[in-house]
TrEMBL record:
InterPro entries: AA_transpt_TM. Residues 37-313 form the Amino acid transporter transmembrane domain. The chain crosses the membrane at residues 38-57, 97-121, 141-157, 163-187, 250-271, 291-312. This is Amino acid transporter transmembrane domain-containing protein. It is found in: Membrane. It comes from the Eukaryota. It comes from Zingiber officinale (Ginger). GO terms for biological process: amino acid transport. Its main location: membrane. GO terms for cellular component: membrane. Keywords: Amino-acid transport, Membrane, Transmembrane, Transmembrane helix, Transport.
Amino acid sequence: MQKLSLSLHRDCLDCKCTHHNSGDWLWRALFGLGNGQLGWVAGPAVMLLFSFVTYYTSSLLADCYRSGDPISGKRNYTYMDAARANLNGFKAKICGYLQYLNIVGVTIGYTIAASISMVAIKRSNCFHKNRDDSPCQVDSNPYIIFFAIIEILFSQIPDFDQIWWLSIVAAAMSFTYSSIGLSLGIVQVIKVVSLGSASAGTMSEMEKVCRTLQAFGDIAFAYSYSILLIEIQDTIKAPPPSEAKVMKKATLISVLTTTLFYMLCGCMGYASFGDTAPGNLLTCFGFYNPYWLLDIANAAIVVHLVGAYQVYC
């Protein structure tokens, strides 16, 4: 009975970690569709490379959660605790500077991404009302300020990032907009096949180079994970097995799940639009209709980012 209880507890913790990991990564599944800039061969190859590197480095970091014995050793509750326990003072400081630089970049990226999705909702409704050829220019600054105010208010709630259902909401929102984007991409591919040709697009050599470099950056950012791994692993309270083993299993499931979504979204985007595939199918208006479905997807992105901002930053 005790073994059964421990087994169920481990499964629950593993599920929670997987939700957390997938939720942290999947919101980027529609951002920077690498295949749209790298093509059928290089795009999937780069995604597989980054997924392998992410899993390997995450496994190494998971082993740093405890100092000494992997089951009874001293816990390192944060990334910096792990850095101080395993590195000398100067190297730990370098890790700290890079960590804070990463956090600043994440906060900027989340704020911009959330405002873009809110603007997309406004523009989507405008296109529906005034037809697709309407300019529908929308200033993003008010939405950036609105998002910042929301985050300031939520940051006043004690331990908001520790709320148990937050990772479940994040995973649900992630699968919502990712599934919508993927479904719209599949529909577009069917249309392209029925017409017998895909959009080839025309770009200068400089534009191709810029978009290729952007694709590398987008894919790398999509697999950025170290900033949260130790904190997520700290939610695993009851070995055996050790927290590291549970975390590695959750990481493997998450990497496989998100890579599958990245591949599908990227391939569908490239098959639909060729080299002119937009960076985000939901906000760059690779599609205009059904507008209400786009609104749901972009609203899900905003909800996800509101919570993710608190957890990450």
